């Protein structure tokens, strides 16, 4: 479990609010932070570089509050959380509370407050292509995420060449996998996938048909998620060697949160099935 560093009720005078008078005159805000950090190494070495400097964090927040102007304290909390998570690499997650004791509601109250918790998530993707320059298409798709300000590329597999799955009358595929740390939600990642498909001219004419790019969210932390547009973990992982093979390369002991098996075990079980038609033809490499 993570350790915690707290900053409570940092008093800032700033110009946030929906009303024009709030922006012009300003008012008092109280900012509290609960920062999740592994402080063990700092504690054992007595060295600040292995922790998060709360004095520096306080100054960063104070400067942000004074220099920025927003209508909503919800926005203020969101922006501060992202600012600090991106600035301090040792931060795992953060809770930001913004109190507004002078809120203009014309009723007796102590304060109005908003609290948000944000943190880093680990997300695994499968990626494939069999139209155009497939290798470049995949490299461009991975670059889209690695260049995103709220994503950090951790690892990517070699590319593999595979026979088509589902619809057999089409060109062979190039497939791979990669994983990132991200501050984005599953829905936001799905929007980013839509941007990748748009850039690479993905056309959806035939299910499992030819495509310039295919990016699938395989895992999002160990969450089990289902909506109209997205199911996590991806429901087809256990059936696809072209997904399991690259996953085994980058994280063989990743555990499936539904089956409670490692990628290595799932891959070996799939290949051991007498009726399974192997699609992986050969390794490629970036």
User: Considering the protein shown, what is the CATH homologous superfamily of the largest domain?
Assistant: 7,8-Dihydro-6-hydroxymethylpterin-pyrophosphokinase HPPK
Largest sheet properties: 6 strands, antiparallel
Order of helices and strands: EHEHHHEEEHEEEHEEEHHE
> How does the helix and strand content classify structurally?
alpha+beta
Write structural notes for this entry:
The protein is an alpha+beta fold and about 290 residues long. It has 2 domains: about 120 residues, GTP Cyclohydrolase I, domain 2; about 160 residues, 7,8-Dihydro-6-hydroxymethylpterin-pyrophosphokinase HPPK (Alpha-Beta Plaits, 2-Layer Sandwich), CATH 3.30.70. Helices cover about 30% and strands about 30% of the residues. Strands 5, 6, 7, 8, 9 and 12 form a 6-stranded antiparallel β-sheet that branches. A hairpin with a 4-residue loop joins strand 10 and strand 11. Helix 5 packs across helix 6 and helix 7 runs antiparallel to helix 8. The longest helix has 15 residues.
């Amino acid at each position: 479990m993570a350790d915690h560093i707290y900053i409570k009720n940092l008093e800032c005078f700033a110009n946030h609010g929906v009303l024009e008078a709030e922006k012009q005159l300003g008012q008092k805000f109280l900012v509290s932070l609960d920062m999740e950090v592994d402080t063990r190494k700092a504690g054992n070495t007595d060295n600040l570089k292995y922790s998060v400097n709360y004095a520096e964090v306080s100054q960063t927040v104070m400067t942000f509050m004074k220099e920025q102007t927003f209508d909503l304290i919800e926005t203020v909390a969101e922006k501060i959380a992202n600012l600090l998570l991106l600035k301090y690499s040792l931060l795992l997650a953060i809770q930001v509370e913004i109190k507004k004791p002078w809120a203009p509601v014309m009723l007796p109250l102590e304060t109005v407050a908003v609290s948000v918790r944000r943190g880093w998530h680990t997300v695994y993707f499968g990626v494939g292509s069999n139209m155009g320059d497939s290798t470049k298409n995949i490299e461009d798709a991975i670059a889209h995420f690695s260049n995103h300000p709220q994503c950090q590329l951790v690892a990517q597999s070699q590319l593999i060449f595979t026979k088509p799955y589902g619809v057999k009358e089409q060109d062979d595929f190039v497939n791979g996998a990669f994983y990132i740390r991200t501050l984005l939600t599953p829905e936001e990642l799905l929007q980013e996938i839509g941007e990748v498909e748009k850039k690479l001219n993905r056309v959806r004419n035939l299910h499992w048909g030819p495509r310039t790019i295919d990016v699938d969210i395989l895992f999002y932390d160990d969450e089990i998620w289902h909506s109209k547009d997205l199911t996590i973990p991806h429901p087809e992982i256990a059936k696809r060697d072209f997904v399991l093979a690259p996953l085994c390369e980058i994280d063989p002991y990743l555990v499936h949160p539904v089956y409670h098996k490692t990628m290595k075990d799932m891959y070996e079980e799939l290949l051991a099935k007498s009726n399974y038609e192997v699609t992986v033809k050969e390794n490629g490499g970036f």
